[in-house]
Every structure is written in C-alpha cells, then in structure tokens.
Amino acid sequence: MTEDTPHEILHPRHWKAARGYSNGMAATGRLIVTGGIVGWNADQVFETDDFAGQVAQILRSIVEILHEAGAAPHHLVRLTWYVTDKREYLSALAEIGAAYRESLGRHFPAMALVQVAGLVEDRAKVEIEATAVVPLVAPAMGGMTAVTVEHDNPANEDAANDAPAQIAPAVTKEV
What we know:
The protein is α+β, with helices and mostly antiparallel strands.
C-alpha cells in the first residue's frame, strides 16, 4: 500500500521500477468493473478524433462511473487499453500523460495495452476497461479506528514526478 492507493502494489524488489503502471495489485473489498469505455461524451457523441482527446474523455468517464459506485481513481486496480494504432498512442504519450494525471492523479494500477484491428465504434481510437476495488471498512470497536498508511514499496516512486499529488484515503483497521 502507498499514499496513492489503499491496495497492495505487487512489485518484486529485484525488478526495475515500473513507470506509469504497476505490474500487479492485490485488493480486498467491493469490486467495480466497467465495460469498454470509448471517447464519446454522455450523449454518446464523439467530440474529437484526436487520440489524446479521446483518452481524456474516457478517463473522465471512468471517474464518473467510479463515483456512481462510491469509488475514486485511487481504488483502480487494473486498466486494459485497446488501441487501434500503437504508433498514434506512442506519439501522443505526453498529452495522454497530462490527461491521465488530470483525471487519475499519480495512481498507477496494473495495466495492459493491446493493439486491435478495430473497435465497434468506427470513430473510436481507444477503448479502456477499468476494474476497481473499494475496501470494506468494518465499524471500529469502541468508536476508535486506527489509520495507517504503509510506504515501503519503491514501485512507481519516479513515475510522473510532476503530477499533482492526489490525496488518497488511508487504510483503516480496527483497534
């Protein structure tokens, strides 16, 4: 667990640090799963054909869906990206990174990116599926709850150093 997530980041200590993603995450709680989200707005209208613009819209949409379940970006444990053009994705990394930090902060769940031949929506250049877990918090005995945050995993320390800090709730434990 880190200050950016209540979940455990799975990163073997002898591995090079992952930048912008986690290799794995462990979580216990209420599971939230999205469908494949494309870069259209709430009215199912694409406002842009720009790759990074579609990513920005998708990430905003994911945050809205998470909020419907009482979740937030720091609850994400996995993002699976489907892109129609790997080169277009790679050429837009700076803009994608800015959109990512704006919507999700410095939280980097396990991720996979897959290039596909096409998506169902013709204008879609990218589609993202999200999985989140909201920890279940048991009522504390005697009205006391201890709040702890563990900071012993070096994974993602250097990722997005210029991103604005995201305040994530700490893990609570009964005492």
